[in-house]
Amino acid sequence: MKLRKRKVWMAMALSLAAGGARADGLQIYGILDNSLEYLSNASVNANGSKASVLRASNGSQAPNRFGFKGSEDLGGGLKAIMQLEAGFNLNTGLLQQGGRMFGRQAYVGLQNEWGALTLGRQKNLIYDAFLELDPLSYYSYSLPALDAQFVGKADNAIKYSGNFNGVKIAGLFSTGYDASIANGAQVPGEWRVGKEYGVSVGYANGPVNVSLTYDQQQGTSVATQGTTTQRVAAGASYAIGNWKPYVGYQWYLSNVPGVAGRNELYFAGVQYRPVTEVILSGAIYYNNITSANQHPYLLAANAAYLLSKRTQLFAEVGFSRNQNGSNLGVTGYGMSVVPGSNQLGVAVGLAHYF
């Protein structure tokens, strides 16, 4: 039954692409990214010794995806807009985001000079703001490794975003941000279950890019709906010739069972383009987890060489430092790392955009 549903969705997507080509225009796009990766202290053998791993790693530079994006001119400066975007594992062909067909984005909306109003599964506001404010541009050894919400999406979301001469404002409300739980978190009579709220303000013009974002999620069950997970994130970058330094901060507080805690995340880094074809980046991410008296950090660097406008070679190296039982791996907390152990990661790969 699941396979049949997926075939139906694929047929609908291809039909949409064929029909859209005759309208105002439908863009078909995607990213194919794969690498060979080495990780130290990735697991523990039966004899108690720590083991490293050499593996094919999917989406080291950018998560693999394909999508459809289109618009229709309705007149008077008003446009209908839509986007469908699927994430998948290049090594296995399996869908990501819990098996959702269009798990990365799936929305429809209206747009004019006053901004865009969209409805569906969408990126949260932290994702929107910090993709441009992460020194390592969301490579696998970067900001999302410290907090997955930096690449978070919200189901059942209504989002507004506007840009007024560089001043950016946005707001998001989700009636149930995770449809993988019972009733899609939209439980009759239980208003707060699974809700997500977000607001963001920023300025991007010329060399300057700054952003301040607030995000709040309610517990995803009737019993936990009164609990909250809150984040306040701020970041900035400034281009100086071929250099672009970055700084950022995030405050996190949660009393939701299973993820409860308090921490402060600090990061800083720089990008450098000595020539057009080369991008060099480096950063440090430090997490002060006050609720657990842990202070892990991640040091990372990467280099990309653009073979063309759509194809590039890349290499990245990362080192995560753990203490007091923390389990930060170079790709994320609890991700292929022995708790309390440091980890070295190295990846070399190829990415193609279409």
UniProtKB/TrEMBL annotation:
User: For this UniProt entry, which residues form the secretion signal?
Assistant: 1-23
UniProt keywords (A-Z) are:
Cell outer membrane, Ion transport, Membrane, Porin, Signal, Transmembrane, Transmembrane beta strand, Transport
A single GO CC term for this protein reads:
cell outer membrane
Q: How does it sit in the membrane?
A: Multi-pass membrane protein
What does the record list as coiled-coil region(s)? none
Which Gene3D superfamilies does the protein's record reference? Porin
From which domain of life does this come?
Bacteria
A GO molecular-function descriptor: porin activity
List GO BP terms, alphabetically. monoatomic ion transmembrane transport
Record-annotated Porin domain positions: 12-324
Instruction: State one Pfam family annotation.
Output: Porin_4
Can you say where in the cell this protein is located? Answer: Cell outer membrane
Subunit annotation: Homotrimer.
Instruction: List the protein's name.
Output: Porin domain-containing protein
Organism annotation: Pandoraea faecigallinarum
